[in-house]
Automatic annotation (TrEMBL):
Designated name of the protein: dynamin GTPase
GO biological processes: receptor internalization; synaptic vesicle budding from presynaptic endocytic zone membrane
Gene3D superfamilies (alphabetical): Dynamin, middle domain, P-loop containing nucleotide triphosphate hydrolases, Pleckstrin-homology domain (PH domain)/Phosphotyrosine-binding domain (PTB)
InterPro entries: Dynamin, Dynamin_GTPase, Dynamin_GTPase_CS, Dynamin_N, Dynamin_stalk, G_DYNAMIN_dom, GED, GED_dom
Organism of provenance: Cyprinus carpio (Common carp)
Sequence ranges assigned to domain GED in this UniProt record: 648-739
Class of the enzyme per the UniProt entry, highest EC level: hydrolase
């Protein structure tokens, strides 16, 4: 025997779910949960079993339901049950279901009336049910028994509240007719979470067990102690009926006979009994479904509208039509060309995520203009001693090239300049490599729209990438040629070149400024290495180098000076890197064999990088602290006289001036060369040559073969479009074949307020006398 009221609604819901399943979506109707709340032995489990039409819940006296039972009803072709804690095991005998509930309850709570908030999850599959969730909750009790805790009432109350406070939960407040209704804990709990009474239905059980001469007529007529949705009386099977295996069909017939034959209830018999309770709940589910349908209709109509154009195009689609393939090829190549140019110019649909190459404000422009100088060697890092050796090595040589000479060691100047120009090659080549990589990435991004035709995408990427690689070699040849042109002739007559006289003047002015005052030449952190472990070991200090002294401080605020060392008679020498240290070192010593710092004959200083060491040595040279004289052969011997030192400074100024000219020229020509030889050329190739190359690559029909994903997409669009239209029609049918009942008007339920019980008791007593 199933739930007859719900069986009327099952076909409609199944049709709706089938309509959604056909388009791969879930019909998320979110049907309400139904929670059965009441005191111990109020008949809650019997009411719940009537929804399933099966005997499967434990029975007995006292507290029987000691854990929440979350019962999920699922519509299926066959009938069986399964537990969440016994996944995969099917129960077809519902007596075994009862035994498993009892065993699982005892496993967690023990066999001595203990309770637990951990729910038992049971699923019942049946063709006679809707997809609903029913919840059987422990009966409300006030006196602990057995292993129950002292606060048993609060624990059960909290357990019940967890479920009934949800807005989608219908509350069946079950109260036995032979108890004081005004003090019903079930109704009071329902009032706490549903003060307006919109989702509470009162259920009066055990009407057949009332004292002789008494009845609950005024309550069932909603005259006494009214509820907004009223009360429904039911007559459940007695324990004797259950022990005698009286089935639910016979019990329903006996219930019907009771209401028709009882003089106090015969006039309301049609609105009493389990079938009517099922009908009321069924109508509530119908109302819920009808309330949900407008949102579903809007969603489906929106999806249908978005697919209309695509479905219309696919409806007349012929995959093997040669004219269609030719047209599609032309459109794809044209779209690829437009997308490529938009991304290059920085005006594509995603300019913030695409690396742009041409636009002055785009990252590609920064790439060409910033990557190049970033890789150039700064002149400040050129070792001065190396410069000195190069100058002196060129001493006495005669320049034979037909240009105006600078001064006697001009070959040293030329050699240094050429070494610096050669170092520009690496960053220039790297700049081209980066541009090539960005172009290839852009090609791949633009070819994403060709995914429907995998052969076309593959050929397009291959052809364009091959052309980019070809242009890469030509661009590199041109850039290297630009640098070779710079190496071919050192143009000292350039209008921006300072010339020997100006360089010498700058050097003299710098020397005068140095001698005129204690000018700060350099500041930075250095580590003093030769401090004994007894005195704390190596320490890092903030050093300040001026034209007259070298001082160091505790930190860069320069408030606490540790020492000041005059530069008189100081020189610099190399110190080999220690095996145990990662730092690079140099030392300062006194040429007259005096202590430099306290008891130390020399001051050993360390930096993190070799470049820092060389930079500090260059700064010390400017301050007049020269390198220690190295042992050299007679042919390479040179003097450390001040005149030669001034020449070194002069050459530095000359090299600095000339390299600024070279850098300016290269930085101007590099982006122009890349634009002309690569970017513009690739754009022209895609516009003018790509289509011809694709035609010559092979069979055009094979080139335009669709991918399997595209075939599936087309079929899915057509199927979804048809299913959406069918689902909308089904929703229309449900809207016209079901009726929504309005919510009953509010009633005065102030009797549920604290302190109202005594007044209500008098009414009940008067009614029963």
């Amino acid at each position: 025997m199933g739930n007859r009221g719900m069986e009327d609604l099952i076909p409609l819901v199944n049709r709706l779910q089938d309509a959604f399943s056909s388009i791969g979506q879930s019909c998320n109707l979110d049907l309400p949960q139904i929670a059965v709340v009441g005191g111990q032995s109020a008949g809650k489990s019997s009411v719940l079993e009537n929804f399933v039409g099966r005997d499967f819940l434990p029975r007995g006296s006292g507290i029987v339901t000691r854990r929440p039972l979350v019962l999920q009803l699922i519509s299926a072709n066959a009938e069986w049950a399964e537990f969440l804690h016994c996944k995969g095991k099917k129960f077809t005998d519902f007596d075994e279901v009862r035994q498993e509930i009892e065993a699982e309850t005892d496993r967690v709570t023990g066999a001595n009336k203990g309770i637990s908030p951990i729910p038992i999850n049971l699923r019942v599959y049946s063709p006679h049910v809707l997809n609903l969730t029913l919840i059987d909750l422990p009966g409300i009790t006030k006196v602990p028994v057995g292993d129950q805790p002292a606060d048993i009432e609060h624990q059960i109350r909290d357990m019940i509240m967890q479920f009934i406070c949800r807005e989608s939960c219908l509350i069946l407040a079950v109260t036995p007719a032979n108890t004081d209704l005004a003090n019903s804990d079930a109704l009071k709990l329902a009032k706490d979470v549903d003060p307006q009474g919109q989702r509470t239905v009162g259920v009066i059980t055990k009407l057949d067990l009332m004292d002789e001469g008494t009845d609950a007529r005024d309550v069932l007529e909603n005259k006494l102690l009214p509820l907004r949705r009223g009360y429904i009386g039911v007559v459940n099977r007695s324990q004797k009926d259950i022990d005698g295996k009286k089935d639910i069909r016979a019990a329903l017939a006996a219930e019907r006979k009771f209401f028709l034959s009882h003089p106090a209830y015969r006039h309301i018999a049609d609105s009493m009994g389990t079938p009517h309770l099922q009908k009321v709940l069924n109508q509530q589910l119908t109302n819920h479904i009808r309330d949900t349908l407008p949102a579903f209709r809007s969603k489906l109509q929106s999806q249908l509208l978005s697919l209309d154009r695509e479905a219309e195009e696919y409806r007349h689609y012929r995959p093997d039509d040669p004219s269609r393939k030719t047209k599609a090829l032309l459109q794809m190549v044209q779209q690829f060309s437009v997308d490529f140019e938009k991304r290059i110019e920085g005006s594509g649909d995603q300019p913030d995520t695409v690396t742009v190459i041409c636009s002055h404000d785009a990252s590609g422009n920064q790439l060409r203009h910033q990557e190049h100088p970033r890789h150039q060697v700064r002149l400040a890092s050129v070792p001065s001693r190396s410069l000195w050796g190069q100058i002196c090595g060129c001493k006495g040589q005669v320049c034979v090239f037909c240009r105006t000479g600078l001064f006697t060691p001009d070959m040293a100047f030329e050699a240094i300049v050429k070494k610096q120009v050669v170092k520009i090659k690496e960053p220039c080549i790297k700049c081209i490599d980066l541009v090539v990589q960005e172009l290839i990435n852009t090609v791949r991004q633009c070819s994403n729209k060709l995914d429907s035709f995998p052969r076309l995408r593959e050929e397009t990427e291959r052809i364009v990438t091959s052309h980019i690689r070809d242009r890469e070699s030509k661009a590199k040849e041109q850039v290297l040629l630009l640098i070779d042109v710079q190496l071919a002739y050192i143009n000292t007559n350039h209008e921006d070149f300072i010339g020997f006289a100006n360089a010498q003047q700058r050097s003299s002015q710098a020397n005068k400024k140095s001698s005129a005052g204690n000018q700060v030449i350099r500041k930075g952190w250095l580590t003093i290495n030769n401090i004994s472990i007894m005195k704390g070991g190596a320490k890092e200090y903030w050093f300040v180098l001026t034209a007259e002294s070298l001082s160091w401080f505790k930190d860069d605020e320069e408030k606490e000076k540790k020492y000041m060392l005059p530069l008189d008679n100081l020189k610099v020498r190399d110190v080999e890197k220690s095996f145990m240290s990662s730092k690079h070192m140099f030392a300062i010593f006194n040429t007259e064999q005096r202590n430099v710092f306290k008891d130390n004959r020399f001051l050993e200083l360390a930096c993190d990088t070799l470049e820092e060491v060389e930079s500090w040595r260059a700064s010390l040279l400017r301050a007049g602290v020269y390198p220690e004289r190295a042992a050299v052969s007679p042919s390479e011997n040179f003097s450390m006289d001040p005149q030669l030192e001034r020449k070194v400074e002069t050459i530095r100024n000359l090299v600095d001036s000339y390299m600024a000219i070279v850098n300016k020229c290269i930085r101007d020509l590099m982006p122009k060369s890349i634009m002309h030889l690569m970017i513009n050329n690739v754009k022209e190739f895609i516009n003018a040559e790509l289509l011809a190359q694709l035609y010559s690559a092979g069979d055009q029909n094979a080139l335009m073969d669709e991918s399997q994903e595209q075939v599936q997409r087309r079929e899915e669009v057509l199927r979804t479009h048809h299913a959406l239209k069918e689902a909308l029609a089904i929703i229309g049918d449900i809207s016209t074949t079901t009726v929504s009942t309005p919510l009953p008007p509010p009633v005065d339920n102030s009797w549920l307020s604290p302190g109202a019980g005594s007044r209500s008791n008098k009414h009940v007593e008067n009614n029963t006398q």
